[in-house]
Amino acid sequence: MKQITILLSLLLGTELLADIEKGKAAYTANCAICHTVNGGRAMGPDFNIVSYTRTKEEIQQYAENPSSLYRKFGYSANAMPTLPLNEDDLSDIAEYISSLQPFKKWMVKKKI
Ligand code: HEC
Fold first, then answer.
1. For 74-78, which contacts have Cβ atoms below 8 Å and span 24 or more sequence positions?
2. Do 35 and 44 form a contact (C-beta atoms < 8 A)?
3. Which domains can be identified in the chain, with CATH numbers?
4. Structure-model confidence comparison of residues 55 and 109, the more confident one
5. Which phi and psi (to 5°) does residue 36 adopt?
6. pLDDT in tens, 34-78
7. pTM value?
8. Quick one: which atom of ligand 1 is closest to the CA of 53?
9. Which residues cross the membrane (predicted)?
10. Which protein residue has the closest C-alpha to ligand 1 atom 20?
11. pLDDT value at residue 82
12. 72, exposed or middle or buried, with CB in 10 Å at 0-12, 13-18, 19+?
């Protein structure tokens, strides 16, 4: 049983990595023209920042339907197109973006 659990978690782990890789490719093809990763603000906000400020679910929902969410996200107008991506692509892209968080590993919150 223990071996099965280990094997299963290994498989799930590689699946997540594969999703992030797929998401990266889909990001490059569909989002990179307007969103950089660690490149400052282009037309839309940089995804390194977004990886801190938004959850995976929020990123996925926004990419799926920006015109219905831009007000909730604090914008006064919508300049982002609704892209013809399916659920899997959107989920992979959101997985990739929320995995960025470049400083998370060494950022420690201080308790006051
Ligand atoms: C044509 C340019 C363009 C493309 C392509 C584009 N975006 Fe955007 N995106 C924007 C702009 C501009 C904003 C800022 C809101 C606005 O002005 O409409 C934005 C905002 C966002 C936000 C909200 C950020 C925040 O936290 O405030 C997310 C999430 C996002 N985009 C994800 C994506 C994803 C994922 C893709 C690719 C699948 C993508 N965008 C493709 C232009 C684009």
1. none
2. yes
3. 2-106 (1.10.760.10)
4. 55
5. -90, 170
6. 999 988 878 999 999 899 899 999 999 999 999 999 999 999 999
7. 0.86
8. 26
9. none
10. 44
11. 96
12. exposed
